[in-house]
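Why run this: before we spend reagent on co-expression, it is cheaper to look at a predicted model of the complex and decide which construct boundaries make sense. The entries below are exactly what would go into the expression plan.
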Amino acid sequence: MPKVRFATAWLGGCSGCHMSFLDLDEKLIDLADKIELVYSPIADAKEFPENVDVTLVEGAVANIDNLKLAKEIRARSRLVVSFGDCAVTGNVPSLRNKLGVDDVLTAVYHEGPGRHPTGGDEIMPRLLPKVLPLHQVIHVDAFLPGCPPDPDRIWAAVSALLAGEPLVLEPEMRTFG
Amino acid sequence: MSVVTLTINDELVSAQEGQTLLSVLQERGIEVPTLCHLDGLSERGGCRLCMVEMEGTGRLQAACVTQVQEGMVVHTHSERLVKYRRMILELLFSERNHVCAVCVMNGHCELQWEAAQIGMDHVRYEYLNPDLPMDASHERFVIDHNRCILCTRCVRVCDEIEGAHVWDVMGRGVNSRVIADLNQPWGTSQSCTSCGKCVQVCPTGALFSKGATVAEMEKQHNFLRWILDGREKKIWSYENGK
Ligand code: SF4
Ligand code: SF4
Ligand code: SF4
Ligand code: FES
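The model came back. Tokens follow.
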């Protein structure tokens, strides 16, 4: 059987979901037999490739870079999974939504310690007015809640997806938080 | 008391006249989700999660505020009901700020659990992200309006059980807020006895003990039964383990 072309991506999140993914421990060896990891923060690929079968997306859509990558992922993946609460709900990054973008930048960079970026140099990706859950930006095929989803949840989800089954988790495995 | 016969999910069931439909469902182990209902408090019928279909009426009825009647034909889990219950939960999550990962009630919250039960794995509505305050002026407790779902359990327990009636609801619709006394900081309330009953019955992270951090808050409702058994049945002590 050809290997499943599998990707993981990291938008506005803390990388905790990826850490939890690595916590699959020895199951990663089973997984490696079935998948080819074509793109991931833990693999060396600069561009999001074409013809990906399954992509797990960690993180909310917080800035224009996240938005661009999210759209590329959708265009080039058969199945897109919101991986963890930040992708599913906006979660902690979205706590800034009740403040204006300017107020956030002022509080963090101008009133915070150290030198602040001068802005306008396009080095920092521009922030979106609101941090959005992934499904408000692109179509998402399945949702894996949890902050982070623990390895059991990830395994249940990945096993179902690789077997071509719909992702239906037990209630205990689909709580937020 | 006379007995009435009704049909629930195609099964004939008998119940006592005057019983609420919810209590009959619970006796029979038919699980409908509830949030505003709490055993020992008066019913409010506010959250609408317990609604059921009743043949012969077009409207859905909240089981907690519906009395059983002879010949009623009730459905509790039709596709439409499950769809509406999920919508209600999604609206509750989108209306204020529910970030479970950093909430005092993470892992013990009734709202969080109902969402998982029904399979609400994401919210289809836009989040409103309101800018709501937190009142930490009370010496022992905090109210965080970001997590409040306006179930009014706090209002009822303080009025009906403690007899202090500190809480009320001010405003309408999305602007409704739970307020202490005449809309003043909780810590300045002269009617609050600091008994903590409101904190214990609150289903979410809206009311919590000062000092509790993420996932540390757990609540228990047994005290309601103890107080009511004493008041109503004069039972003042329990054998071990009861
Ligand atoms: S109150 Fe419940 S649902 Fe809301 S954030 Fe806290 S744990 Fe989550
Ligand atoms: S602590 Fe007791 S008296 Fe004070 S508001 Fe809560 S229930 Fe009422
Ligand atoms: S503070 Fe808690 S108990 Fe009171 S209305 Fe809000 S959610 Fe319900
Ligand atoms: S439990 Fe019946 S309406 Fe809330």
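Residues A 177; B 98-100, 103, 105-106, 109, 111-112, 147, 204-205 surround iron/sulfur cluster (ligand 1) (CB under 6 Å). The beta strands of chain A are 4-10, 35-39, 52-58, 61-63, 77-83, 127-132, 142-144. Bring this page to Monday's planning discussion.
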